[in-house]
Design goal:
about 0% strand
Length: about 100
């Protein structure tokens, strides 16, 4: 027996595509949260982009917001790197 085709509500698809376009996370991660396969979300996004007008697209963050977000991310990554350096040095001195 074949599998039944899963039918998704239009509102669900629209919300999934909105999240895929507006959130700064991988589509595969968003798809997992929604309980769908990533290729399905890629397909919906592609269909939306083909049929939508430019004014319908979600607003991109302005440059100042993006710079602020990136600087915060750089700071967090540097802190993580420094911590890992200290941990590696500690374990290198105390092998047991």
């Amino acid at each position: 027996m074949g599998r039944k085709k899963q039918v998704y509500a239009t509102e669900f698809k629209q919300e999934a595509v909105r999240r895929a376009l507006s959130e700064d996370r991988p589509i595969a991660e968003i798809a997992r949260e929604l309980g769908i396969k990533p290729h399905r979300l890629y397909q919906w996004r592609s269909e939306y982009l083909q049929h939508s007008r430019v004014e319908d697209m979600p607003e991109a963050p302005n440059q100042e917001q993006e710079i602020h977000r990136l600087r915060a991310e750089v700071l967090r990554l540097r802190q993580e790197r420094d911590f890992l350096k200290k941990a590696a040095a500690f374990f290198a001195q105390n092998p047991s």
